[in-house]
Amino acid sequence: MTQLHIMKHLLRSFIIVTLAMCSVFAQAETPRWITIATQDNSLVLGTDERGRVYNSYYGATSQKPDKPTLLDEVYPCSGGDFLKEPALRAVHADGNTSTVLVYQSLNVEKIDDNISETRIELKDEYYPFYVTLVYKAYKKENLIAAHTVIKNGEDKPVTVYNYSSQTLCYADAEKKPRWLTQFCGSWNNEANMITERLNRGIKQLDSKRGVRAQEMRSPFFLLSDREELAENEGGVLGVSLAWSGSFNFCFEIDELSRLTVTGGVNPFASQLILDPDEELTTPELVTIWSQAGTGDLSRNFHRWTRKYALRDGNKERSILLNNWEATFFDFDQDKLVKLFQGAKEAGFELFLLDGPSRSRIGRCICPATN
Fold first, then answer.
1. CA 59 to chain centre
2. Is the pLDDT of residue 47 over 80?
3. pLDDT recorded at residue 14
4. How much helix, strand and coil, in percent to the nearest 5, is found in the chain?
5. Which pTM value belongs to this model?
6. pLDDT at residue 7 tops 90
7. For residue 300, is pLDDT > 90?
8. If residue 325 lies in a helix (H) or strand (E), which one and from where to where?
9. Domains recognised in the chain with CATH numbers
10. Residue 104's closest CA among 56, 52, 146?
């Protein structure tokens, strides 16, 4: 082979390798901004040169996003340079307690005319440990449902202690106070509204009951820019966790007055061991931002719930006759028959025998007319 042929062969090889590398870099290129949008609102995420992903803005689409900072990481992890309450805390197979997530890929899928799904895959800088952030945007309802998929790609088990569904961040909570409204109480005194200003430090709303976790405190809250909530005006964020077990909402304002909100499964006594290639999917955290007060927010929540969360949510329900408040545990057949009398004329369609279930006998649901 002549020297000229050798030079041509080397040049061709160089060009092929260069094009292949450019293709790889193009696929791995990190977008500067990632936007999850509904009809009126946007959740905007930003990235840096290392591939770290940050919360930048959530609110009306007309406003510009903030410059991302280390304090606003989209899914902050324990053991790295994030020093606030983490969304993820894991111990890797070799005992390392640090996780640093960087951008891997982005996929946006339009499910239908109203729903789009955004999936952002993150990976630890060192370990084959993956976190996929999933955002499902419902355009007409101005609602975003977020959850996280955590996958252990290591060759040995990994233990996860904290695995929140989502983290949100707000700048300058000192000059722009945030007012938190929670709903709490007890049996026969549920959902009392309590509003308070968030201050420096950590505020938590949680339940460790495991079952009937919502009995003392509801797994949802409102975050507003004003102390007195208004029906038709003012900015307000509504958040609800689609989870019936122990939950935790953490609100932390740091020394720079930046507010971080983390919500999901309560990490108390909830550690899980992920075997190699095993995945963990967190519950959905459902959020709505409204610039037109609590009325607009509430109506959007109800529309979404009827259409997407409840079975046959837009169909009429049968009218139910329940004996519990009328009889408690003190009933027999004659008392129940008396309750039936007139039920049909009053329009009742179902009867629920309530009380035996509390004695481990079970419940009976039957047509009231029978």
1. 16
2. yes
3. 45
4. 20, 40, 40
5. 0.84
6. no
7. yes
8. helix 324-327
9. 29-309 (2.70.98.60), 320-367 (no CATH)
10. 52
